[in-house]
Amino acid sequence: MKTRHGLLALLVTATASLGAVAHAQSPWPTQPVKILVSSSAGGSPDIQLRLVTQKITEARGTAFVIENLPGASGNIAAERVARAAPDGYTLLYSSAGPIFFNKSLFRKLNYDIERDFEAISQFAATPNILAVHPSQPFRTVQELIAFAKANPGRLRYGSAGSGSSQHLSMELFKSLTGVNIAHIPYKASSQMTTELAGGEIELAFQNAPLILPHVRSGRLRALAISTAQRQAFAPEMPTVAESGVAGYEAGGGSGLLAPHGTPRAIVDRLFDDVSRALGNPSVREQYAKNGLHPVGSSPAEFAAHIHSEIARWAPVIKATGATVD
Q: What per-residue confidence (pLDDT) applies to 190?
């Protein structure tokens, strides 16, 4: 009897193992892959994603359905994907908010970006440009600071919503300079850019891809860039730090994630496809034209970067008081 039970247990174990192997080796994808985007259509993450998925489709024939789900500081899309089946058919493409900031901004979240997701790759680093409407009298960061201090509360800055990289970039600026500038949050990054260019608000930190066309056309004036070093796409543009705000560095970054438990083979296949697409000369040219620096980090590198950025921004968020709930 004991022998029979032992053989039965061995058979069950072997069958389960064979099933797991068969599952891991099953073809993927056999249907379109849905990617939920945590920000609005036309925003920097959306631009980055569509350029890459177009190349993957051309190379592999993989069909992607991209669904933009902005709102709640990017949490709507993140929560939905966290609850999705880990089968590689529902993915998250997230802006910096859910990946780097929201864990510190919200007292309670229905997901944990490190626990509930498998990191696949960060596509690009996204600088923010401090831009102002040409009707404003200041032409440098120091002139802006002097004007804001002489007119507390008079200036208004826009963002893509509370907890966005635009919001926190300006809150860090305010914290380091002591200026009083009112926050006007928008539901969509593109809407904020349009109203800034129309003079409805005075200034903003905005993702380079969205703001550069308006700067180049003269509809907006760029004062500085948020990164630690000047960027090749605009070498004449000074950084905020070299403009007199010591220690300033901020910006965005977005990437692709899958629900926790997604088979490693699928995660690796996605990373390989993303890496190849980001290495395509036409994609790199479009990224550079839009002020984006391709990253293409591995799953392990992206996971480590998420962890380090959460740790870096937590004290900044606490110091600025930039909580959301």
A: 87
Tokens linked to 183: 């926050």
CB 225 within 8 A of CB 204: no
Residue-level pLDDT at 26: 59
14 within a domain of the structure (yes/no): no
Residue 263 and residue 211 in one domain: no
Parallel/antiparallel/unpaired status of strands 182-185 and 156-159? parallel
Measure Cα distances from 194 to 134, 159, 168, 199, 201 in Å.
14, 12, 20, 9, 10
Predicted pLDDT at 20? 43
- Assess if residue 238 is contained within a domain: no
pLDDT single digits (tens) 55-100: 999 999 999 999 999 888 889 999 999 999 999 999 999 988 899 9
Q: How far apart are CA 172 and CA 138, in angstroms?
A: 20
Strands 252-259 and 182-185: unpaired
- Domain total for the chain? 2
Among the candidates 209, 225, 241, a domain finishes at: 225
Name every residue whose Cβ is closer than 8 Å to that of residue 170 and which is 6 or more positions away in sequence: 157, 159, 181, 183, 204, 205
Does residue 149 surpass a pLDDT of 80? Answer: yes
Q: What is this structure's pTM? A: 0.81
Tokens for 11, please give them. Answer: 């058979």
CATH number where 205 lies: 3.40.190.10
Q: Residue 52 belongs to what domain range?
A: 29-126+252-320
